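TODO from last week: model HTH araC/xylS-type domain-containing protein.
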Amino acid sequence: MVKHKGGKETLTGIDHLQLTPHIVLKHVQTTLQQDLLLQGESAAHLTLVIMMEGAGHFSLNQQTLQHYRPQSFWLSCAQTACHGYDFFPRHHFYHLLILEFSPDLIPLVDECGLSVPAQEDAWILSAVLTDEIARQMQQIQQGFSDRSALGRLRLESLALGTLWLAVRELCQQRKRVVPAVRLPNRERRRLIAARDYIRQNAAQPLCIEEVAQHAGLSLMALKRGFRAMFAITPWNYVIECRLREAQRLLESSPLPLNDIALHCGFAHASHLSRFFHRQFGQTPGRYRNSRGQAMLRG
């Protein structure tokens, strides 16, 4: 997610183009035979990453770990120098387009409503890939072979247009998160109580009826209101809490995988592995190994 400095480049299959002094394009199509960990320092940056296929995870300035997912994009902004790392697991096919813009454009992004939180010097937002952005990516990929002045001018236009589409989609995504249904204050308080109850008891055998009863809501009101208020279903939030705790234990404890699964509320290790792989694109064991490598090299 960041521009890693130093060290020998170990990722093959990259088509690199310094389009202008302020725009760099990187097109990646490769299958990794070994796990790849990239880490280092980066200057201030504005980077758009579009992933058609692939897996892995990354972190910026020791913020919450984020995961690469196919058919998605990420906008990474840093106003000052930052530290980050990216991990890409082996035996996956990777198809990405990376667009690096001048950080001088960050104020424009801020004005669009995607401003950096006051307490952070860097942030990353992501969304599902739209058809428009996918078409832009395809046109940029096709334009790499045309290094004429007109071809480069067209690529510059496509790159800036892709950034515009990404920022627009992120702004619209923020608007969509606002609940479409107006919830009375009393119901909002009960939904917050339901969320907190799930968070505190996610490792226990839970049923949604029990959560609704605890919060003083009907089952239908819980399902409808929870999704409207938190943009996730109650049961998916249970799984999310369990996976978050599993992540923590995989990073910080030597417990066997089956013990972690039981501790987090999963029936057995394969149950955890299925949900973990679906959410993060890799097995718990590979995730634990990658985090161990990151800590050793950090």
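Done. The two ends are 17 Å apart (CA to CA).
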